[in-house]
Amino acid sequence: MSQDRVALVYRQLRSMVERFDFKPESQINEVALAKKFGTSRTPVREALNRLVAEGYLTFQARRGFFVKPFNPDEVIALYETRVAIETEMIRLALARNSHDGLDALIFDLDRIVAQHQAAEDLEQLLDIDELFHLTIARGAKNHEMERILTNLNSRIRFFRLIDLKFKRSHPELKSEADVPGHRAILEQMRNGEAENAARTMRHHIERRRDEATEAAARAFASIYFADSTT
Amino acid sequence: MSQDRVALVYRQLRSMVERFDFKPESQINEVALAKKFGTSRTPVREALNRLVAEGYLTFQARRGFFVKPFNPDEVIALYETRVAIETEMIRLALARNSHDGLDALIFDLDRIVAQHQAAEDLEQLLDIDELFHLTIARGAKNHEMERILTNLNSRIRFFRLIDLKFKRSHPELKSEADVPGHRAILEQMRNGEAENAARTMRHHIERRRDEATEAAARAFASIYFADSTT
DNA sequence: TGAAAGTCAAATGTCGACAATATTGCCGAC
DNA sequence: GTCGGCAATATTGTCGACATTTGACTTTCA
Fold first, then answer.
1. Residue B168: is its pLDDT beyond 90?
2. Which residue does chain B place closest to A148, by CA atoms?
3. CA distance A22 to A165
4. Is B97 exposed, middle or buried, given 0-12, 13-18 or 19+ CB atoms closer than 10 A?
5. Beta-bridge partners for A58
6. Sequence-separated (6 or more) residues with CB below 8 Å from residue A55
7. Are the C-beta atoms of residues B37 and B12 closer than 8 Å to each other?
8. How far A60 CA sits from the closest chain B CA (Å)?
9. What global pTM score does this model have?
10. Which long-range contacts (CB under 8 A, 24 or more apart) does A48-54 make?
11. Can you give the distance from the CA of residue B136 to the C1' of nucleotide D12 in angstroms?
12. Which residue is closest to A155 within chain B, CA to CA?
């Protein structure tokens, strides 16, 4: 034992950051975290460095690690990046695959859409939604885009969760779920209409962007004034 | 003194990796590096962790850090990602900026194209070329895309350098420089033709992709059999 | 001879301590 | 009362050592 602390610490830290357990712009205290996790500072620092490189945190020499300032513009930027990546992914997935490969991909997507409808809780809903998009990424056979999309999704997740929770408690606002959007994309892919599918994907993501941006604005106060679990 | 070793080590390591001073797939020995840099293993490990998160290296628990296998497909993936990012960047830059903002952006781009023609060596040529694209990224006002593009460029750089060196020593193959392509993109942006500019950008990058892929194939042997500077 | 088990050197994983630096709090001067 | 500077304190940066694990080599036994 006592061998894989970095991985443990990394996972925990990342989910803490994703949930905004730390206040934005607050400094992250290495010794406090080390104590919390029962390790020395070494694994904590390694994990923090990874999180910086992945865009979750910032770092200033001799000052330490900081949580990125909370900023609706940043959320918008993340969604815009998704639009860029995902519209191109669709083109690649359709151009790159043989007929059989495409059939297999569409078969997988069909199943995911079906699961989507049966999702039981919000976390699961998001998992399945992200899986739909990630499966297309895999169909595009571009590891780099897959990597980037995974990263974007995890950084966006918190805001979507906020949005979904809000919608659930205000049924009158309930917008259409993601399922119809996914189904439309799927049909156009099935028909080989790359540009149409890309356009639908763009609008699909842009709608989510607007929802998440609103959610971010609503969440602003609660994040800034919530207790950080030191 | 003895305070900012990580930054030093990181920069050196990155340029070593970019130049393929390490053989692809070879394991990276932490103690050897530490000795080489005259530090302990701690700063080396932090730098290596960053390089993993940035896509330069891979890591296997209890086995260590490895150079990514050299793989023309990977180069193609990097270029495809650039297409995705940069075509969208152009749309954003044109949609997002006021008339004056756009004028300023185009003024900057004009100057960069002029510098481009006057570049003295290959490294400088690449710097200026990357600056053209990065300036558009800044015009798009999307930090995330800027970050990603910077990362992509630095990982692609080696292959472009190989290509340019090869072209220089085989003047009969000399393809058109990047300048005309940039100029065309610039003109279309000036006229507000977002979709045309995006399309030109796509073709521009795809041409580079083909050149770099060939260069990668040519470089294959020399990389795999070159001495690694332990 | 060949395969399994054991041994050992080398590499990684983690730690606690110390050095360098930044931040905070205090005190006196104006 | 406020400002600037100094001391005290907290935090980061780096190190060398030790623990654990891996992988290669050797030995042993069928």
1. no
2. B148
3. 20
4. middle
5. A66
6. A68, A151, A155, B144, B147
7. yes
8. 11
9. 0.93
10. A48/A13, A49/B46, A49/B49, A49/B50, A49/B53, A50/A10, A50/B49, A50/B50, A50/B52, A50/B53, A51/A10, A51/A13, A51/A14, A51/A17, A52/B50, A52/B53, A53/B49, A53/B50, A53/B52, A53/B53, A53/B54, A54/A151, A54/B53
11. 37
12. B144
Which positions of chain D lie under 7 Å from any protein Cβ? Answer: 11-17, 19-23
- Interface residue B16 vs chain A (CB under 8 A): no
Q: Where do we find the tokens 């992250």?
A: A28
CB contact under 8 A, A142 and B61: no
Q: How confident is the model at residue B105 (pLDDT cuts 50, 70, 90)?
A: very high
Find which nucleotide's C1' atom is closest to A1's CA. D20
Q: Which residue has the tokens 């513009």?
A: A73
What gap in Å lies between CA B59 and CA A28, rounded to an integer?
Answer: 25
The pLDDT, as a whole number, for residue B225 is: 61
Contact B37, B5 (CB under 8 A): yes
**Cα–Cα distance, A73 to A64 (Å, whole number):** 24
The CA distances from residue A219 to A78, A227, B85, in Å, are 17, 14, 29
The kind and range of the H/E element at A64 are strand A64-67
A5 chain-B contacts, CB cut-off 8 A: none
**Of residues A228, A116, A132, A218, the one with CA closest to residue A177:** A116
What contacts A91, CB < 8 A, 6 or more positions away? A194, A195, A198
Encode chain B in three state secondary structure.
CCCCHHHHHHHHHHHHHHCCCCCCCCEECHHHHHHHHCCCHHHHHHHHHHHHHCCCEEEECCCEEEECCCCHHHHHHHHHHHHHHHHHHHHHHHHHCCHHHHHHHHHHHHHHHHHHHCCCCHHHHHHHHHHHHHHHHHHHCCHHHHHHHHHHHHHHHHHHHHHHHHHHHCHHHCCCCHHHHHHHHHHHHHCCCHHHHHHHHHHHHHHHHHHHHHHHHHHHHHHHHCCCCC
Give tens-digit pLDDT for A23-79: 888 899 999 999 999 999 999 999 999 999 999 999 999 999 999 988 889 999 999
CA dihedral A137, B82, B147, B117 (to 10 degrees): 180
CA of A141: which chain B residue's CA is closest? B77
Q: Is the pLDDT higher at B3 or at A60?
A: A60
